[in-house]
Amino acid sequence: MKSQKRSSILRTTKKIGDLIMEYFTKAWDRKNEGKPIAWVTVFTPIELLYALDITPVAPEHFAAMCSARGLILDFLEKAEKNGYSQTLCSYSRCGLGYALSGAAGFMPPPDLLLTFRNSCDVYVKWWQSLAMHLKAPLFIGEAPYVLSEEDLDGYALDFTVNQLEQLIKFAEEKFKVKFDMENLVKRVELSDIASELWLKILNLRRVKPCPLGGRDSASDIFPLVVLQGTDDAVNFYRELLAEVNEKVRKHEGIIENERFRLAFDGIWIWHAFDMIKYFEERGAVFVYEPYSEAWAYRLDKSKPLESIARKILAMGLNIDIDLRIKNFMDRIKKYDVDGAIIFSNRSCKTWSAPQIVTAEILNKELNVPYLIIEADMADPRQYAKAQIENRIDAFLETLEER
Amino acid sequence: MECDIYNKACQKPELLLDFYRESKVPLIGYSCSYIPEELIIAVGAQPYRIPDLEAERSSLTPNFVCPFAASVLSNMLRLEQYFSAFVLAHTCDPMWRIYDILKKKIRKPVFLLRVPHNTDNPLSLQFFKKELIRLKEFLEESLGVKMQNDSLKKSIKICNRNRKLMKDLYLSNLNENYSIDSANRFKLVLSGFWLPREKYSAIIENACAKFRKKRNIQNKVKLHLSGTALYHTDLMERIRELGGIVVSDDLCTGSRYFWDNVEEDGDPISAIAYRYLRRTPCPSHAPLENRLEFIKFMISKFKAQGVLIITGRFCDPLLYDSVHIREMLTRTGVPSAVVDYENLEQELPRIQTRIETFIEMLGCGG
């Protein structure tokens, strides 16, 4: 198969690096001012933390960044030397390695460790371990697995809202901060605008040729990870939407000659962005990822706590398999996907465990071929480049023949 | 029933499945010790805990997912015909996702009991109680019966009696008064997962009468076994042959299963919720401190000389915990060793060497 001309990434995406650095600088400024820093797992009530004047920092994002920039190995090895098995989640090994190395780099040390178990149970274990090493106060919330849509209005929702109220009380007592409902309403409104903008951007990937590729979507989610409820996030997505709209108007795809439209199921392989490029150079563009979509959730500012609770509950991996498959199949049709790449991620067992069943259903119901790639999202030592590229070649040849 | 039926039951529990089918006793397959057997018994069904025995790991999950969970999944798929329904608990990620897979792969009803991970939070207890009511309704619907309050109270008494007997059995090995062999004791506990519950008390009592005798353990190395669910009786026998004795454990198929009883007064569902959520947490659950305290308590009570942490490969919760268990043990001067395995039967020679070295080291004074 002939290689296509080299593809590029969007102008706005290139600004993400500076935004991240600015974010870490601000977090350190806050720490130096004596303001509390919370280490959070993603899909926690970020808007609520901002309303409490607590700055959220996400070790998962930090691990992804370290992996993408080739900075992760020292942290992984530090954790492993301290007894953490190499089979454990690489994000957690990175976070623990950072903590055990003195927590003095990009992330300021935490005054609070906050997690809501939703996408995986590893959160509980990882955060407990951090608490043991860092001796910081720990708040473990639970967002029960959503078994049906009714759960989002039933006692699972009440339980989650009550825990948010508990968190407010906990923070007020611990840090002598005052919860301000007006501030929360403003944060919720900003968060909702950012989500709305991101969903509009993703929706434009239905256009042929696709104006935004996998390397963009992988980076562009950052503001929705830790800047939900801020003007910075809203401004970023406004600019991104304008650029994507401009590309659509010009009928300009993110790659020059779009031949295959692909879905990617899994967290991105942060240390192997070259893999996305490898697809793009062969005319294959990623048009849909459940991962990218998971970060957006519409909020109702008239019910701020309830909205945030629903968002924590309904994050992509925490909803019943029937709902997940239904969503995935809807998107496959909506985005006119030719094939799916299923990333069997050694670190993310919660995502990977039912993937074979999902892929079988996808293939049976929609006749969509799939390729399973096994690697680790952040640990570059577990990536067999040549073997994966061989399998990609074979897969694209299959698509070519259809 | 024969006195050594417990022995046969834990060698090949599947043999009992035909017995239940012929007796027309509905079977509810369940996954772990967070599932209250009291509710299953109260609807006239037999709880049957699905082990990882006699099964290769299911190919429906990737090979880096916990082999224990993958084998339990295989057994549920393979033995579906015998069961009226399955009940799983949301403990760790693999057990949670087995529910997803089963939902797509079997026709029998499947239930996921959501066990809040922060077991200390009063809000978790309120939520868990609602989950138990949902489980009660699921069992009623699956079996077409109504659960009576009296039946539930009776089943609480049956389970309490069984748990008390097991705990007494355990405590009879205190103070150098080693009267029940630990491998036999382990088999007795395991067999309770599969034998008819109403008859189980008599089985324990008969077996105890038969096996209770004063044993000399002066030259034996006393071990605490730390881990999750373990069904392999061979391991206990090997430890015995190698000169060790398991004086205590914190296994899901051991003391954590029977240590605490349900209050018999008051609202039964509330009492069950309290007992199951507030017992020593599984490695997947918090607070870790409660688990560490329990291990420390057991070691001190039973005077264990060392701790053997036995873990399935890819068992994330235990692999995180093992770091802190070992740190705690180092601080208190108790030696420990971690033994991991993917297929215990196949890897027994390697595991045996590891355990032998640990026992020898402890025998020489640590």
Account of the 3D structure:
The complex is a heterodimer of chains A (402) and B (366). Chain A is of the alpha/beta class. Chain A has a domain at 14-177: Rossmann fold. Chain A contains 18 helices and eight strands. In chain A, the strands form two sheets. A four-stranded parallel beta sheet of chain A has the order 2-1-3-4, sandwiched between helices. A four-stranded parallel beta sheet of chain A has the order 6-5-7-8, with helices on both faces. The longest helix of chain A has 23 residues, at 181-203. Chain A is globular. Chain A starts with 15 loop residues before the first helix and ends with a helix. With 366 residues, chain B is an alpha/beta fold. Chain B has a domain at 16-149: 3-Layer(aba) Sandwich (Rossmann fold). Helices cover 51% and strands 12% of the residues of chain B. In chain B, the strands form two sheets. A four-stranded parallel beta sheet of chain B has the order 2-1-3-4, with helices on both faces. A four-stranded parallel beta sheet of chain B has the order 6-5-7-8, sandwiched between helices. In chain B, strand 3, helix 5 (93-105) and strand 4 form a beta-alpha-beta unit. In chain B, helix 4 packs parallel to helix 5. The model of chain B has no long low-confidence stretch (mean pLDDT 93). Chains A and B meet through helix 6, strand 4, helix 7, helix 16 and helix 17 of A and helix 5, helix 6 and helix 14 of B.
